[in-house]
Amino acid sequence: MMKKTYLEWLNESTATRWWHDSGNPDEIALAKKRGALGVTTNPVLTYRAFRSQPEFWDEKVNQIPQDLDFEERAEALLRLMATYAAEYFEDVYKATNGEHGYALGQLNPSRAGDFEGMLAQARRVHSWAPNIAIKLPTTRSGIEVIEQIASEGIPICATINVSVSQAISVAEAYERGIKKARANGVKVAPCLVVQQVGRIDDYLRDVASDMKLNLPESVITRAGIAIAKRSYQIFQERGFSSIIMPAGLRGSYHLTELAGAKVIFTLNTRVQDMVLEEDPVQEERIGIPVQQDIIDKLMQIPEFVRAYEPDGMKPADYITLGVVQKLLSQFTETGWAPLETYRSKKVSKRWI
Questions:
Q1: What is the band of 351 on the pLDDT scale with cuts at 50, 70, 90?
Q2: Domains and CATH numbers, the chain
Q3: CB-CB contact of 74 with 336 (8 Å)
Q4: Alpha-carbon distances of 214 from 182, 210, 223, 305, rounded to whole Å
Q5: 349 near 170, Cβ under 8 Å?
Q6: What does the pLDDT read at residue 349?
Q7: What is this structure's pTM?
Q8: Range 40-64 average pLDDT
Q9: N or C: which end of the chain has fewer CB within 10 A?
Q10: Phi-psi category of 129—alpha, beta or left, where left has phi over 0 and alpha has psi -120 to 50?
């Protein structure tokens, strides 16, 4: 009998599941064969997919009207990607009764502080297919949108979340929303709470370097893990319905240290390949805490304290966190903005 791969072991022998992270059709197909149960994308990955396999998308891209405004064009392109992925995983969606099988439709990152704009866009995007979940930022306005769309039975993926306090805010807003949904006879849809484990590591590495703390990589690379473990513990203690989604993995350690948790990882092809090649020990490690001496060293970084402590920030603070602004800018400048003019005859004045 052949030994299970690590990814097969996660799906079949633990509470942990995983989805694929990219918009490339070939990679999506490969990931599904490997056991992926859904697809996560963002504007950056969508733009890359169009650029890397233009022949796959050209016919549909060319059908998009040239008279759309810039935001409408980006949204139309995101629709191509989201509906393709949603259709590809529709069988999983039906087989799991809506627990898995989703694709994501990310809202315009430029609207991270715009409640009304995000709410209207969320409703439009979800109308494309029942298994398209709304991906929106964990800002104060985003959390307000989460509560509202949860009450309407719209599936959610709260992204650009790097802290315990953000995760708690999302989970609490979702609970309020689904309470209203049930009171009104609305079928409840799931909520995923992204924990950007690799991106917070990257950010804290820069901050620690600037502070001249001389922290080794063995310390820095446990920051995101520590935050995710603490969030998970609180979710379990408080009985939250939301599911944590570790994302932005930089190495197999981000996966192995959280293995066994009832979470849904999102893994790009590079990380999948890395894990399959390394073939880590098949051991549930979610219950093993990050060593206290490592936490103590990380606590020298004020930004880690803000991210790690359950009361480290208030909702109004989320959009002010450096890494949140960094990610919003990245998604806008290298994803959404290029989509606004992709194969368009219009010239954007966004940066003028």
A1: low
A2: 6-198+241-288+316-341 (3.20.20.70)
A3: yes
A4: 52, 9, 15, 18
A5: no
A6: 73
A7: 0.97
A8: 96
A9: N
A10: beta
